[in-house]
TrEMBL record:
InterPro entries cross-referenced by the UniProt entry: CHAT_dom, TPR-like_helical_dom_sf, TPR_rpt
Gene3D superfamilies in alphabetical order: Tetratricopeptide repeat domain
Residue intervals of the CHAT domain: 620-865
Coiled-coil residues: none
Name used for this protein in its record: CHAT domain-containing protein
């Protein structure tokens, strides 16, 4: 049976090896006006292509034509094969009853080998519909026949499908065994699309086993394979959304799901895939705190799943819909009943999401004061705290903590919170990328808040301090895993620098080039993806924060940690051998005031804004009342360390009247201040001075500093290129970088300092074996940070602290370039006299001219850490 010189039967396996080539050859077959049997095969190939990669309506027309031609050819097996393909397409189109009827006819018509293939495809459809037991039964019937006949391709498909069903039921070990066996078979074939699918499935298995970096790496590899074949990746998008959400990257997951939905709508693709993508989008929106979007997406998903007769999927979508409604502020007995019904149905399916639904029912019941109902539901949810993947165990411990709180057991709440956060700590340290470590902490926010709430009402200030520290700035507790010497990552960073430099030059010349900006964004995605593949290498060592050690190290100084409980700021004043608590103001008011102050400092950086100075100073007084409250008279005369929550990281603390003339430093946590305090400077640490391009003053302080230090290494002009700068910074004792700083709120790890060959980004700093002991960043916005996760901060300063830097001076606001020079020179004068960064900065402010611009410049800079 041929069309020209090509055997037509070869087209069917080719559609999953090289889909585009198979489509082209099938069209050539039909152009030759073939007999019914080869025409049936060609139409089936085109139908498969359109079903999986194109317009489902066109697919159904081809497949019905293929079925009719098979009947005319009087080939029962050919007709059975087409009926199975048609059945899959009908189910994906949402015509479930017609699809299952097509399978019934296919099973009846087929024999032997063909019947086994029909059973495999019906098993696939059962999986799509959420009928997992039926799927496993059809695979059980098909596999022995496929193996006996030596059909490696279909045997591998059946094993892959069975593994996927096992994953849906939470049987990860069984899934791993099947995936491994399937992969061995795929290696013997040329089925490139199936091989890509196998890599994608391994990514899902890695995720289910708790290995997020491996999951992201495998899904990215699968995407590259699909891209070479030119095939869309809807299922891959669904799976990546799940992994991104587990990594705390819900906004990114939502964007991916919405983009895939838009593409699917544009080409008229599978209704089943659209419903699954809507569910993924709803989950992502809920995780991102966007309740209205979550409600809208979940409601449409519920309707589509119901119309498609996919009860398993519909129930999962109902869970997200109820969660989103509760997040929007709804509470009612009806919602308790709905959540309980969803939990019961999910449990009957064997779904790992059942405890999540029970926890939801318990939460709503607690909010309504229905303690007996809450206990019943929470007890069910708490059963999962000892087994399963980390997020599921955290859910179980959250349920246990809520049970203990309802029962009035303070000890029970704290124990459940400790155990749950320990689980999340272990999971966090499997992640190598600081970005992922920061974002994933959001999963522990409720446990940390419960523990702080109980500590506030039933414990002393010391207990509240311990729990405030327990889940604050945890990313800084250990350095990120150093990126491997990955040639692709290194070349990507080099290419990114070049493109970013060209794009910036074009913007400065008033001729932005969209192509350069698109390439810059593409390279950012590639770098971000590769860094996320890094697996953690530092084991979790438990909570090592030691209050007595902190009090001992403070000497005659004070550490002020601002804890936020139920929206209010509480001042924990550490010093003189004890911890005291003082009430302060609402966090929301303090954040609003801080934003007003930041706007004022931006205006004061330019001459002619003197009239705004009293307003800014008055705002500083209000901030002091909101943030320090009654603690002010107890600050003593010694140095003060401020430990603010993430939401207040941009407060210019030196503006507050009680802190204005003090030796003042800022730290993301008390634990990170302790680590900085105990960090030893490198022996014979050299001084490095860097002057980047394009500064309004030309970095005028650098030549004077070079004269002051004498033996300092000076990098400027062509020497100030990123590779050379990094080489000199590694292990230095003191580094001064005069370079334009840019903060990226959308992607804080691409915040940068401008060097001669392009941006020096946070990802570059993370490649250092040891960052400089002290760093001074003399440009604007270098201290700006992004608050993510539970209470984590990402940006230049926080990237340096875990890498060996004990102290940083940087600015949290735009500053006047000319006014920076005298401040920097005075700062270094203090350092050469043996002062710490905080002492030198305090003294440097006092030497500045009394005009508004210089005052604002002094307030904008802060000392971070303890060096």
């Amino acid at each position: 049976m041929t069309a020209g010189s090509e055997p037509v039967l070869e087209l069917l396996p080719m559609v999953f090896a090289d889909p585009g080539e198979a489509r082209a050859r099938a069209e050539l077959v039909l152009a030759a006006a073939p007999a019914p049997l080869p025409a049936s095969i060609a139409h089936q190939v085109l139908g498969i292509w359109q079903r999986d990669f194109g317009d489902l309506r066109i697919a159904l027309r081809h497949l019905r034509r293929a079925r009719d031609l098979a009947a005319r050819a009087d080939s029962a097996d050919r007709e059975a094969d087409v009926l199975a393909t048609l059945g899959v397409a009908l189910v994906h189109a949402g015509r479930t009853r017609q699809g299952l009827a097509s399978f019934e006819r296919g099973v009846a018509r087929g024999t032997g080998h063909t019947r086994a293939r029909v059973l495999y495809r019906r098993a696939y459809v059962w999986w799509v519909l959420g009928h997992h037991r039926e799927a496993l039964e059809d695979v059980r019937r098909a596999l022995p026949v496929l193996r006996q006949l030596g059909d490696d391709i279909w045997t591998a498909r059946a094993l892959t499908l069975r593994a996927t069903v096992h994953l849906a039921l939470g049987a990860v070990e069984r899934a791993d065994a099947d995936f491994t066996a399937a992969e061995r078979l795929w290696d013997t074939t040329g089925q490139e699309h199936d091989k890509a699918d196998a890599v994608e499935s391994r990514g899902l298995a890695a995720f289910r086993s708790g290995d997020v970096p491996a999951a992201l790496r495998l899904l990215d590899e699968a995407e590259e394979r699909y891209a070479k074949l030119g095939t869309p990746t809807y299922m891959l998008s669904i799976r990546r959304c799940e992994v991104l959400m587990a990594a705390g990257l819900a906004p990114e997951a939502l964007a991916e799901a919405d983009a895939a939905i838009a593409l699917l709508d544009r080409i008229g693709g599978q209704s089943t895939r659209k419903a699954e993508l809507l569910l993924a989008a709803a989950r992502a929106a809920r995780s991102a705190g966007d309740a209205p979007t979550a409600i809208a997406r979940a409601a449409v998903a519920v309707r589509l799943f119901a119309a498609q007769r996919r009860l398993w999927w519909e129930t999962h979508a109902r869970l997200v819909l109820i969660e989103a409604r509760v997040a929007a502020g709804r509470r009612s007995g009806r919602l308790v009943a709905d959540a309980a019904a969803v939990a019961e149905r999910l449990a009957s399916f064997g779904s790992p999401a059942a405890p999540e639904a029970s926890l939801l029912a318990g939460r709503i019941a607690l909010a309504l004061g229905w303690t007996a109902d809450a206990e019943r539901h929470l007890a069910v949810a708490a059963r999962g705290r000892h087994a399963g993947p980390a997020p599921a165990r955290v859910t179980g411990w959250a349920a246990q903590a809520l049970r203990a709180r309802a029962a009035g057991s303070r000890r029970g709440v704290l124990e459940a919170c400790r155990r749950g956060l320990d689980v999340l700590d272990d999971h966090r340290m499997t992640l190598g990328a600081s970005e992922l470590r920061a974002h994933v902490t959001a999963q522990g926010a409720e446990l940390a808040a419960l523990a702080q709430e109980v500590s506030l009402t039933h414990g002393g200030p010391r207990r509240l301090l311990e729990w405030s520290e327990r889940w604050r700035a945890t990313v800084l507790s250990a350095p990120p895993t150093r990126p491997p010497a990955d040639p692709a990552l290194l070349s990507g960073l080099t290419a990114y620098r070049e493109i970013a430099a060209r794009a910036e030059e074009a913007r400065m010349e008033g001729r932005p080039v969209p192509a350069l900006e698109r390439e810059q964004r593409r390279l950012e995605r590639e770098i971000r993806s590769r860094t996320r593949h890094i697996r953690g290498s530092v084991p979790h060592e438990g909570n090592r924060f030691d209050v007595p050690r902190l009090l001992d190290r403070l000497g005659d100084g004070r550490l002020v940690e601002l804890a936020v409980v139920d929206g209010r700021v509480h001042v924990l004043l550490c010093g003189q051998g004890r911890v005291r608590r003082f009430a302060a103001g609402p966090l929301a008011e303090a954040v609003t005031e801080a934003e007003y102050v930041q706007a004022g400092l931006r205006r004061l950086a330019h001459p002619g804004a003197e009239a705004r100075l009293p307003l800014v100073e008055a705002a500083g007084e209000r901030l002091q009342e909101l943030l320090l409250g009654g603690a002010v008279p107890h600050l003593g005369a010694g140095p003060v360390v401020i430990v603010p929550p993430g939401a207040l990281h941009r407060v210019p603390w030196a503006l507050l009247p009680a802190l204005r003339d003090r030796v003042l430093s800022v730290s993301p946590s008390a634990g990170s201040w302790l680590r900085a305090r105990e960090t030893e400077p490198p022996r014979g640490g050299r001084t490095v001075l860097v002057r980047g391009p394009g500064l309004a003053t030309g970095g005028a302080e650098v030549p004077e500093l070079a004269d002051r230090y004498g033996t300092a290494t000076v990098l400027e002009g062509a020497d100030a290129q990123v590779p050379r700068v990094l080489g000199e910074l590694d292990g230095a004792g003191l580094a001064h970088l005069a370079a334009h700083g840019t903060f990226r709120a959308d992607s804080p790890l691409f915040s940068a300092l401008r060097m001669a060959d392009g941006p020096l980004i946070v990802h570059d700093f993370e490649r250092l074996d040891r960052s400089p002991y002290r760093i001074i960043l003399s440009s604007c916005d270098t201290a700006r940070l992004a608050s993510v996760g539970a209470d984590e901060l990402l940006g230049l300063v926080t990237a340096l602290l875990p890498l060996g830097t004990a102290g940083v001076v940087a600015s949290s606001a735009p500053v006047n370039d000319a006014a920076v020079i005298p401040l920097m020179l005075a700062l270094h004068k203090g350092l050469t006299a043996g002062l710490s960064l905080a002492e030198a900065l305090r003294d440097a402010r006092t030497t500045l001219p009394s005009d508004t611009v210089h005052q604002a410049t002094g307030w904008a800079f802060a000392a971070f850490g303890a060096a």
